[in-house]
Amino acid sequence: MPQLLRLQNFGVSRDGFGAGEGQSLEHPFGHANPADLVGWCFATASWVNRTDPGGSRGLDDYFTRDFTNNIGAEIMGRNKFGPQRGPWPDDDWRGWWGDEPPFHTPVFVLTHYPREPMQVGETTFYFIDAAPDEALEQAKAAAGDKDVRLGGGVATVREFVEAGLIDTLHIAVAPVELGRGERLWTGPTELDDRYHHDVVPSSSGVTHHLYWRD
Amino acid sequence: MPQLLRLQNFGVSRDGFGAGEGQSLEHPFGHANPADLVGWCFATASWVNRTDPGGSRGLDDYFTRDFTNNIGAEIMGRNKFGPQRGPWPDDDWRGWWGDEPPFHTPVFVLTHYPREPMQVGETTFYFIDAAPDEALEQAKAAAGDKDVRLGGGVATVREFVEAGLIDTLHIAVAPVELGRGERLWTGPTELDDRYHHDVVPSSSGVTHHLYWRD
Q: Which GO terms describe its biological process (chains A, B) (predicted)?
């Protein structure tokens, strides 16, 4: 089986924003309410941060339970690790993801400020200054024979799309308008020149857009 | 996490038949053409019997790649193992599933004619004369902490639905009429008194029906 680079469960607003304006430590999505943007995830039985036994097991759950399926590594932009910009502050802050991050694999954090790897729970974060194709090569090697997940955020996704490196994309368009922030695209047909495209409305109100290539 | 009993990728015709009339060794689906009924599976990248690297990775592929996801055992009716009826013939026939069956777990075959377990490749078939709830208890024990797949066929699915034992169902309605054969239901709303229900049309022409309960 070929090793894929997969974007999964990436939420955008109807007007194409993956995060609002003014991201900060307290507000990872800026002025956007996370529940508006990615609340469909939280409602599913297989949501990776679920702590109680409830949740739906319909269409949306197929997407959240595929999060870890055959994934051996993740690549994320620095802004998905934390809100700092520029040189790393000399503190012991260990990222957005708590004591047991949901990745459980090597995670490659793209940054112009490399630093020593950091192990948090079962996840090790590697901070690398690398072009998309070099980062993908490292992540594939770390993933064994499994696939690599592209975690985001918006700027990182755009960079990897432009470089033609992503094999499959799952983007969930939420029924909310943000007006400003980090813009992924002008609309879901923007990738149709490069990918097959399934449009799948869900009873939760989001529309799942699935892209793949031959 | 609770251990679930899951029906997955079960194909029926628009008029509710899971197999045609006249099932035999050469024609496991009777007068029905398997490609009409379950051809949507064959077209996906993750179809369990795929031998070449092609295939689609859109909506339908989420269903085929969930086939083995967190599954630790299967229960199937005798008619899914082979076409024989009554006492087993004294031969060395080893079922429909070839030298390397796609299950790779213990499989419990329901029959009124128990016989010794049979290992084929990485799959061991256990032939048990048991009521649905007893069979499920054995399969759950064999599955460790994973879920159990209900494999079919139609009569077995109906029996387990009647007994209230199935937690989630995925039934794919194909755009074909069979007129006669093994009938699963009068229509997709038949289970709505007992389950939540998502209706998901696919670009392949099938409509996926997903059922779950609280």
A: riboflavin biosynthetic process
